[in-house]
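Give me the fold.
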Amino acid sequence: MQANCIESENYAVPEYYLSWTLQHPELLAAGWHTLDGQSLEILELGEANLDNGPDFLQALIKVGGVVMRGDIELHRDWQDWYRHGHHSDRRYNQVVLHILWEEPTGISPELV
């Protein structure tokens, strides 16, 4: 298992904690929401991907009353999508939800 770390001033969180947190949403203080404030529900988490590609496959989510099925990817911040080359990797074409650890700043409006 790769133990990439998410670093802050006072701690480093292993990247797999993001996945673990997603699998235990009862530990979160507030519900899920999109960048523009819409409610978000993960109806089915899908299958954890233990190989290369998105973190969870074939999840079922609901955003603002619309139900969608697709993959979920987890990152520390939104720029990791590009740093990791996902924008040009066809394995990520079915991603319907990109979950971020940190509140995004400086994100381009066309990506919201």
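The longest strand covers residues 66-75.
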